[in-house]
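In the laboratory, one determines a bound structure by crystallizing the protein with its ligand and collecting diffraction data. In a computational setting the workflow is compressed into a single prediction: the sequence and the ligand go in, and a structural description comes out. We illustrate the idea with iron/sulfur cluster.
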Amino acid sequence: MKELVVVSGKGGTGKTSITAAFATIAKGAVIADCDVDAPDIPLILEPSIRSREDFSGGKKAKIIPENCTACGICQSICRFDAISIDKSNGKYRVDPTLCDSCGVCVWNCPENAIEFNPVINGELFVSETRVGYMVHAHLGIAEENSGKLVTLIREKAKKIAKENGKELVIIDGPPGIGCPVIASMSNATLALAVTEPTTSGEFDLVRIIELTKNMSVPAVVVINKWDINKEVTENIEKTLKKLNVPLIGKIPYDRAFTEAQIHKKSIIEFAESTTTKTIKNLWKIVREKIEIEN
Ligand code: SF4
Ligand code: SF4
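The predicted complex, in structure-token form:
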């Protein structure tokens, strides 16, 4: 099983549009939407949900008012300021958005008045799209532990690929370099880093490349919208040479990406152009790198 993860050190580089384009060309690869905080690829590929399951990212503390004697111990030891007095009944209560699930209050309450149960943070979906199966998720607002959810999405996508005789999973990775990105890249066959020619784009690209090196994941780079700032594009090319990371292509700025998204299509499905030819060539290079047939 091969896993291609499309990442970007920052948001807004066009990572998801390129992932959708690759998924369209690849025909039948399983798509794993690991950008769980801002899942955009379903907006393009319009998945039909076939199954869903609850996702629990961990436990949260909850005080049972009837058992609480208002001694205040829990409030004094909670390092996350998640516990406060409930003025309506004089008992203490936990703010679940602040609770970090450490469990310290639970083990120190003299009255055993604090429950510590798994909470549902989101939902995991298996869907069918016009280009193949997709595993995606919905994470509740302000919910955390998206790294665990990303791992679950990848596992599920690999399982579906195996069951359906597919050799490739294409992962739309989260932006940045945090825990969810690490979860989306670990042991991947290849990381494709999408960047743009801005100062922050270059800075974040270097950070994501360092991360791929630390994780021993082979990486290649695409510069999207390369012609909006040719000077920075040149700088990025020099930087990549120093880092010894292949630049496999440059995609020009093209409003067709936005137009295609408005029409709920990948750019490949939208209209034939020099940009789509460039992307098809990129796919050939990626396919060779990960050694798959189609
Ligand atoms: S430690 Fe237990 S009894 Fe004391 S305030 Fe907290 S919940 Fe109530
Ligand atoms: S579990 Fe930890 S973070 Fe949550 S309320 Fe208790 S002490 Fe605070």
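The domain at 58-120 is CATH 3.30.70.20 (Alpha-Beta Plaits). Keep in mind that any predicted model is a hypothesis to be tested, not a measurement.
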